[in-house]
Specification:
Butyryl-Coa Dehydrogenase, subunit A, domain 1; Butyryl-CoA Dehydrogenase, subunit A, domain 2; homotetramer; Butyryl-CoA Dehydrogenase, subunit A, domain 3; Acyl-CoA_Oxase/DH_mid-dom (chains A, B, C, D); 51% helix; Acyl-CoA dehydrogenase (chains A, B, C, D); FAD (chains A, B, C, D); Acyl-CoA_dehydrogenase (chains A, B, C, D); alpha+beta; four-stranded antiparallel sheet; oxidoreductase (chains A, B, C, D)
């Protein structure tokens, strides 16, 4: 149980931190102001393009080898080397964790480093389970930054916290697989470079519950795929990625587009989600750290009732509680990452951090907002966006309650409970 | 201590409830969809106009006497009669409370009934402290719905939780008063009908701390008044009212525009804020009730893991906690309203409800969001907007911490503490 | 919905308050010291006697008509007049509520005023449902203070939160009823004057679930009744009343000892518990007020780091939160009492206060303990005992979770749920 | 940052676990029953003796080398070897941490292994700062288990959370030092083997604030030392160690009894408390684990409403929250231990765990109590005692609030704050 970053991880984390601060932060401030302007004045359409300065940041990051850092050790084959990761080899989950935290300080950073969801999860899926053809066609350009991808699982008509509820059909019909149904919260579908969706659908309704569904690669321009609308998360559209409601009407793709064969969606989802949840959780830690940082800055620089805000009422206690909560959650995540590296899977630990990280972040950010007064709610600070991000993560990839259920089942299992 | 609505109050509450459900709700759904569309597609500019159907709702409401119901008993002079309140006389705070709760179910309702902040607070101020000229010029058209008004107190450069920090100057110069400085979170300034601002400024820096500031009526078109930008609250601009950042550069108005004479701003603010905080608090209760209502509906109509969502995990416990919290908070507010009616002021009780109501609402809404899954975060349900409204109220009119300070001072005062 | 005490209630509350302060408080301090001494030095046996000075307090209280104040209006027949209540008539639940709060300041007071659990609940049961013979034999001496009684419902072998789990049998056999089984947390059994138990037992296992059990009056000296041991609540034995584990072996009493006839225990329990839960809840409010009072006193009189404790860190915020929580909970209870008076029953509201009151008390007392430092944990202050009392009430008469279930069922019922 | 136990630590932890389960648990159950009996029947005096079976457990533990395991690596000189630690050398804080957790499952275990507070802290103090004479006279017999010791710091008359408040004087007078004043919560003073107190007193009122106090070794039989009374913690006397209120009247000991010379008490206290707080915190983790273990056992073995308790309402969620909270806190403590080992001191991290550990334990134990119903409050389960222990730790060695202050100061210090 060794939580220290290897020298390489420490070096990369430091490089990422420096890049975020020196290169990304100024661009982010300009873009945030532009988004905020667009909201006020109704000119948001161009937010769905990728600004040139972001493309430029990507080029710079890649030139420094800060690219595809998420590629996991042992699964990366020649990819890390081919696609730019400094050092030419993938990182363990434990090594990538502090890098992910560093990218969490900026909502823009993950994309700049080609480490953003859902592309990372999709890439990992192809890396682990994709056929050579699937990899050539989609993984290469993804890692090269030439295309983006989307992930379509949740459905509007059913409680998707129970994934077995999914109703979109993905039926093998001769050499094809045919999809019919509707998805939403399809993240990434709004991106102008989005070329492919990974869609989870029902293939064998009579099979055992966890062998009914398949994951299918669907090119975004396949006839019958229609983005019905883009959804907002508490007013944020998360441009240029976005979250779409997408209908699939008699969508037909070759059966070779099914990843790892029909009926394996649940198995793959487990594999897909473990490392991704560690990334998410560590980015939440980065977000919480940034909020605490802002709270301390504001708390010391503003005065009320004759004192710095930090010295009023319970503010110091809340600063301490934030520090304790963040450090505890970070260690919990590092431990889960370590276990994932060591045993290949750590479902209980991953569910635990899926609960802990966004809740800690949400609480710390709420405090930071309160300390900022009205400013904390406005677009002048990144706190409102950060809060919304944390709130959304409490639902994304399974709500808190489902993950607590996983943890409780494991705990009661030690005492003989079967479920 | 009689908390029951009088027959008239009960009748008005029922009428308001019915109007909200039958008339306002369908319009609100259409407008919410339009706002949501505007956000997605960047056409928000026209949201700053008042839609015809809202003007129509106002006409209908007024025709039914559901107009200016906030006008307080005893202070309304002939206004309630002249400006349409059914029954022709003002309501006590206790009688208005359930009406306010009923309007809280819809973000649009307060405006439809001419009972929206900040116009209600401004109207009360003029009613209590305005000169006959001030009333003729601004109160009459406000109550008539011909103009809107804004309130400018908070400043961007200082911690405004300590109102003595305010730096905008309002200096009497001969027959004029001259304003210089900058305000933000000036609510109502974006409305096309906004005709006047009430601005709080520093007149006598050397006077005792609470006698330094004045409240000045500033017509919105006075030279030197400039809306620098509109602020968003977690992405919501609250069109068509909005919250502006407003600069005042050598703004000169007649000294007769000072309400009740220079140096009385703090005294007036206390008077202005008591009833308004009761209104706000009761609207929060309405909002929380709506969220709980939605949670129950969703909890019973969706299934996961073979059960209605309501029967999963801790959901029933949370429904019970929401019911208990809402009922407790409502009674606390009714008690404060009763005390306000009885004694004219109830600062400790008003601070207590200022803390309790939005926190309860925020917690209940958060639960309702969680139960709705992704839908709860989207614009398909009014929950994200409701949460933001509750979150903002934790800061508006003084942050939680300041109001807790008031309550604690009173409590320790019983034991001899001087401050 | 009128929550104001009637003049009579206000007068009685004031009289009780004054009596508690002037007469009971000094005796209580001496007794607490004696209990504390007994614990240290192992001489606790004599705590199971009633000290003469307590008997003397009872005489004084009765002489002032502060006796049997719990007797409910409308059900008291001639009892209130015969047995000493000042004014000679019973109080409504709403009128008794502030009296109960006043008795809650002292753990000794309820007994001094002949208003202590479980005797009050048992007396009410006999008042409402007892036969004339049952009343003559047990109600008269109870109200006269000549005997005490116990209530036996919970069983050690089953989860008694689900009362239908009860297994002690109470089988009618000719003219007798025969009891076999084991109870615990039989409150009052340790009192030297305890003359009778009301025992809840299973009479008709095949009847509908809520018609299987009976309530039986069992004289404490009936052969086969054995107190196996006295239980402690976090170290407190609650002498001289105590909580016993009691075995019943072939205990035979006349069938006329069944209250209201066999199979009616659940129906009676509902009737018994409504007012009693209001009393409990208001005593919790009294307890919480006392803790807050002590916290303020200590917070102002002790200094650390150059300031009174009250001014350090979040203490003022916590004082405010305590005040808000107490006032909210009190109003919720008064409302439940009012509804109980008005409609005869208010099960949802009573369950709500059963949850709210002890939780608020526990939280306020915990804060007061913390502010007192080590002293707060010791017997030098009544805080440790108060905390334990509040903690126990979270389980007594049904755990929080069961009562939340009642509240949630009612809430979901409004939306059509059947259970 | 390597949190894994070394092979030796793993082996010792396993041995301690096995010993606790096989040897200590049965004795503990018998003793708990005896204490409980004594409470009921007033025969507690003999609890102040050490039962023969406990002495016997000590002999067995020592024979297995499970003795003085707390002795820290690097400071133990020849002590670990001389006084029985298996392996003959001290453990790092990180290595001792899981051992401490294992001892936390039983309130008796620390004493059996000669690893109980306050003796461990006192021994460490002598180890680090004691003169050879002081070590020979007191450290040797302490480690040999022949004597016990007490620690006297807190005073009844002042808020001792601010240690500079201490008023007992310890004045150097020629070759002597003379003590006058009063202490309480002097832990260990009740033990029949208690031979010496370490007393913190004011020596130089005019010196800088943190150089005024000294630590003095005072033999318990020195004239003028008087145990005024033993204090209880929520009804628990913690026999046979106990917490005393002790008066010092003109107590005269040689000046050579001052540890490390006058004025160094604060410096020494820091050194004394770091490892001790890690021990305390890990024992809290052990306690919380035991409570969770009991909750799961009970939750699966009892039924209500047709289901195991664990499956009712929010119980599974609470089990998950307990697991997450415990694991997070444990990792936080291990990290602090690691830092203490690496840097010799980690005051911020130690303050953080001082806050986190007892709060987590208190919350988990409260849940376990609730799940046990009335049984959870009684002496039939160790939960009431466990809760009290956790509650007391929130005050012992500085209340939560003081430690949060330390953490906040460090956090704000990163942003330039001076205090």
């Amino acid at each position: 149980m060794d939580f220290s970053p290897s020298p390489r991880a420490a070096e990369l984390t430091e490089a990422v931190r420096a890049f975020v601060e020196a290169e990304i932060a100024p661009v982010e401030r300009r873009l945030d102001a532009r988004i905020s302007e667009a909201r006020r004045h109704g000119g948001g359409a161009d937010l769905w393009r990728v600004p040139d300065e972001v493309r430029e940041l990507q080029r710079k990051a890649r030139a420094q080898g800060l690219w595809n850092l998420f590629l996991p050790a042992g699964h990366e084959g020649p990819y890390a080397e081919r696609f730019g990761t400094r050092g030419g080899a993938g990182l363990t989950n434990l090594d990538y964790a502090p890098v992910a935290e560093a990218t969490g300080w900026s909502s823009l950073a993950p994309y700049v480093f080609n480490c953003n969801a859902p592309d990372t999860g999709n890439a990992e899926l192809l890396l682990r389970y994709g056929s050579p053809e699937q990899r050539d066609r989609w993984l290469d350009p993804l890692l090269d930054g030439r295309i983006r991808s989307a992930f379509a699982m949740t459905e509007p008509g059913v409680a998707s916290s129970d994934a077995t509820n999914m109703q979109l059909t993905a039926v093998v019909d001769g050499d094809d697989v045919v999809l019919d149904g509707r998805k939403w919260w399809t993240t990434g579908i709004g991106h102008p470079d989005c070329a492919v969706l990974i869609v989870m659908g029902l293939s064998a309704p009579d099979a055992p519950k966890h062998a009914r569904h398949s994951m299918v690669l669907v090119p975004v321009d396949t006839p019958g795929v229609k983005v019905e609308r883009m959804l907002d998360t508490m007013g944020f559209l998360d441009e240029p990625f976005g979250h779409g409601e997408v209908s699939f009407t008699d969508v037909r793709v070759p059966a070779t587009h099914v990843i790892a064969g029909p009926g394996r969606a649940f198995e793959l989802a487990q594999g897909r989600l473990g490392p991704g949840r560690v990334h998410h959780a560590m980015r939440m830690i980065g977000l919480a750290e940034r909020a605490l940082h802002l709270a301390c800055e504001r708390g010391l620089s503003r005065q009320a009732f004759g004192k710095p805000l930090a010295d009023l009422g319970g503010n110091r206690e809340r600063i301490a509680e934030a520090r304790i909560a963040i450090d505890s959650a970070r260690l919990l995540i590092l431990h889960a990452a370590w276990k994932l590296d060591r045993y290949g899977a750590a479902p209980t630990e991953v569910s635990a951090i899926k609960v802990a990280a966004p809740n800690v972040a949400q609480q710390v950010i709420d405090f930071a907002m309160q300390l900022h007064g009205g400013a904390g709610l406005s677009s002048d600070f990144p706190l409102a966006g950060a809060w919304t991000a944390a709130r959304a993560v409490r639902l994304a990839d399974g709500p808190d309650e489902v993950h607590k259920g996983v943890v409780a089942r494991a705990e009661l299992g030690k005492h003989g409970a079967r479920r």
